[in-house]
Amino acid sequence: MADPVLVLEPGDERAQKIAKAMGSQTAGEILRLLGEGQKSLTDLAERLALPMNTVKYHVGNLLDAGLISVADTRYSVKGREVKIYTLTNQLLIVAPRQSDVRSLLLKYASLFGIVAVASLTVAVILPLLEENVNAPVVTPAAAGVMRETPAVALKAGWEGTAAPAAAAIDPALAFFLGGVLVIIVLLCYEAWLWKRRG
């Protein structure tokens, strides 16, 4: 049994056969008549008021393109084999190929490169930002004595205790792993689409 949906690329052999078969008004009329029900060459020739050879030529092209098929074979009164034709039950889509494997790999390799560069940037910039945030801010007191701000005192209070769990995870590593996870999910989705189009 043929696939109910067939995706063809322009220039592909079957797409060329379809274009050749559909290139005339007669082929369109044959398809319209077969849409009403199964018919033989004789039935088609009589309904179209065309010579049998003309109808046979167009039916041959439509058969070759896969737009119609032989539904049944009967025998005439004289004992000759008569083929009965019908439309194929297919949806044909002619569209350019979405992507090949090479371009898909290049796309995701470049995404991975962007995630890696961004992660390195975060790894370099984050310590510089933390140094500025954690630097002691000293303000002159009324008596000329210097004292630390509450942020430094808070940091000093943490030194004797275990650091919070969130501080234990390196943000640059978390960013990198998150980016890789997103790329893996996108790759799986693309693979699923590719297999489905198969």
Termini separation:
16 Å
Proper CATH architecture of the largest domain: Orthogonal Bundle
CATH domain fold name of the largest domain: Arc Repressor Mutant, subunit A
> Helix and strand string, N-terminal first?
EHHEHHEEEHEEHHH
Strand order of the largest sheet: 2-4-3
Rg over CA atoms = 36 Å
Number of domains: 2
Structural class: alpha+beta
Largest sheet: 3 strands, antiparallel
CATH class of the largest domain: Mainly Alpha
Q: Segments where pLDDT lies below 50 for 5+ residues?
A: 142-149, 151-158
The helicity comes to 55-70%
Number of helices: 8
| Mean pLDDT score | 76
Any idea what the shape is?
rod-shaped
Q: How much of the polypeptide forms β-strand, as a percent range?
A: 15-25%
Say how many strands there are. 7
CATH superfamily of the largest domain: Winged helix-like DNA-binding domain superfamily/Winged helix DNA-binding domain
Top keywords for this entry?
three-stranded antiparallel beta sheet, Arc Repressor Mutant, subunit A, 8 helices, 7 strands, 2 domains, two-stranded parallel ribbon, alpha+beta, rod-shaped, 198 residues
Give an overview of the whole structure.
Helix 1 runs antiparallel to helix 4 and helix 5 (101-134) runs antiparallel to helix 8 (171-197). The protein has 2 domains: 5-94, Arc Repressor Mutant, subunit A; 101-136 and 165-197. The chain is rod-shaped, with a radius of gyration of 36 Å. The two termini are 16 Å apart. It has helices at 13-21, 25-36, 41-48, 52-65, 101-134, 150-158, 165-168, 171-197, and strands at 5-8, 39-40, 68-75, 81-87, 91-94, 138-140, 146-148. The strands form 3 sheets. Strands 2-4-3 form a 3-stranded antiparallel sheet. 9% of the residues are buried. The protein has 8 helices and 7 strands. By secondary structure, it is α+β, with helices and mostly antiparallel strands.
